Fold each of these.
Amino acid sequence: MAFVSNLTQYSAEGFAAGFTDIFAPFTNWLLPVVSKNGRLNDINRFQFAYVTGSSKPGDYTTGYVSSGGGIAGKAVTMNTWLYQDLVVNDSEVHQVSGEALASVNYQAGQQVAADFLSSSLAPLLSATTTTSSLLTSNFSGSAGLAYLANLALVNKWPVGQRVLVAGPALYNALLQNTAVTVASNFANSGAEVARTGVLKNVYGFDVYPTTVNLGSSTNATFTSSISGFIAAPGAFGICMAYHNPQAGAIGNGLIEANPMNGPSGIVLGYKKYYNAAISSMSNIVEVLGGATAINPKALFIIGGV
């Protein structure tokens, strides 16, 4: 049983590592829910801070007049439940190494993360307001990037907290943009871009490449695949909760069920059960969660053409 327990550990750790790598660009919007446990389609709540609008003038007649703002609650439906399962039979358990299981589950974790983000974010992004200036083809020169910086300025996005998440097509356009690559040659670390192919920051935006399918735009400005987006804190919220098994499940087929809390508030689940009918141990790694829009002025999508 010690050998099986070690395999369980390798499975869980590999999955968590793979999930975290894909999820990394999106941790800025991962918000804690009120409840740590949940079921599919539960409606949960999380807290967020926001500013209601312009400053208010004061006088000695009305004094201080409150119109809300500050800390608010937002409902989110936990409507995305995805998992990967690894089945090891009694013969295979003595032929596979822990390192091999970690590698397989690393890939499984990446897949679940990509599928979870696509399922929960694509509907939200597809209806997001945008402009014809935000097309990948406009990023071959400096005008498109300057437009991004201006959007952030006009909408009062905090400096140092502006993010550009770029899919493959958009990231490729940025790497070929001479306004980026030539200028980077004059920076102390400019050569890093040419040597590593990693663009960390441009025009005040932290750049995160991603392979997640972000869906397609359905607004009136353009209809195309979404190749990326720019956002500030509070643009949207991603929530996760542990999918808690029924009371009494442990010992009645289910051997083990535990949450796996990753960095930045990521919550995953691990379950293990033995199927005597096929002499196999099933290892289930899963995620339960959902996403919701918060501040429409903190999010703009970039089209794929």
Note: The longest helix spans residues 98-126.
Amino acid sequence: MKKAQVSIELLAIISFILTIFIPIIFYSYTKSAEFKQASTDMYASLIANNLASLVSSVYYSGEGSLVKTTLNIPVGVKNITYNPKESTSEIVVTLDDGSQIVSIAEGQIAKDSDLLGKGVYRITITYEDDGILIKKE
């Protein structure tokens, strides 16, 4: 009878511990996923703003100016595209979930600028006759 009582008490303790820890683990997992998405969104916004700032800087420096920089595009970012407008350009960072982050840069980005995807890139931003050109090295 004693062995059965010990077994039942052990099962009760294990079930009590699982009852407490399973919700904690689930909560931690969901918060971790939310944090990862928020950090990807923030980093993508930072990339878009930095790229827009560099493009505007080259535009205001005048024809023939150039800037070289390194961009680290993290996992979660699908690509970076450019939409030239009349006197400005939109830098569009598209995330894997389909959402987009848009930043406005002064000057028109040339249509033959390189599109960027995930990875680390050394890029050169130059102001030429047909607009601002973004090229990978």
Note: Residues 2-136 form one domain.
Amino acid sequence: MGNDIFHKNIPLLEKLINHKRGLSCKLSDPVKQQLYEIYQKTEDLWCRNLEKIDTEIKYILIGEAPPWTFCSNVSYFYEQPTGPLISTVRKAFKDEMPKNRAETYDILARNGFLLVDSLPYSMPYTSRQRNSVSYRELVKACSGWWINKLKKSGKTFSKDLKIALGYYWNGLQLINALGGETEIKNNRLKTLKSAELNIGSVRFQFDTNNLISNKETGYMPSSEKIKGVYRI
């Protein structure tokens, strides 16, 4: 399903890129090839990390996508333990610096933590794009991809599973794409209806209270907000 989703939704990605330009440009073959190579490598790294988790999954962080890069080296959560996102997450579980890369991932695995991205395309999205109907369409179209990854992971999910939404606009669009409803009125964000995530026979609800980034944090994930959402 992963490869099918990647190729199937390229037209939606192209629509998003061009939504403010009134153009019908296609992604070049080299760009699509690079996107696909990043996708394949990060999927492999995600699956390898999944094998390290031998306890029930208690914490999920829903991200957007791995960072875009022109080179062969991928800057990904499960590849570069010195990046800003993994450092933020690690501090929420353990304050001191791990001795090496393996220890960083072991700490998260022992705590039943798992990151899953909501998009298979490592594009440098802008705030304007993220706050568009085209982006919401892309997020919704790809939602079955990452939810299916969780369902087929072979892991047990805690009945008290905590879900954090990593990035502000992506999180809002996820809520709306999965049946929720949000409203921004007088610069205040409000949940009108919670979203629902179904993993097997278990259903989990989440809303704007699950966001770990906002205007106060510069729209970047915060360790304190992670602790609050995860209650740790």
Note: The chain has a mean pLDDT of 89.
